[in-house]
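Q: Got a minute? One more chain.
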Amino acid sequence: MSEWRDLPPPPDPDQPGWDLTADDLAAQLHPDPQPGPDPVGVVAVTAGFVGIVFFGILMTLVAGILGAIAGQRARAAGRSFELAYLAFGLSAVDGIVWLVLHMLFDVPITVG
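A: Always. Here it is, folded:
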């Protein structure tokens, strides 16, 4: 068992970083979210909506990739993930609609 004499000396309060409050530390760990939607997320959702009607399999990939990028940007900026989630959902719908249309009907590849 160690005694108090064996413990290292306490840190010097004159060193930088000792004057931070709990609010300052929380602000450093969780930055304030930036206002407004992410443009990449908006483009990803738009690509998902367009993919339901035109170029389904291509827009599935575009919406999925842009949704992943939007999610990374939202995490870095402290924003909501709602646009990224919506883009992924629309990407899945695009893929399902494209598969169903092409399995049930003989339609051109640009449809659905």
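A: Residues 24 and 102 are 57 Å apart (CA to CA).
Q: Perfect, thanks.
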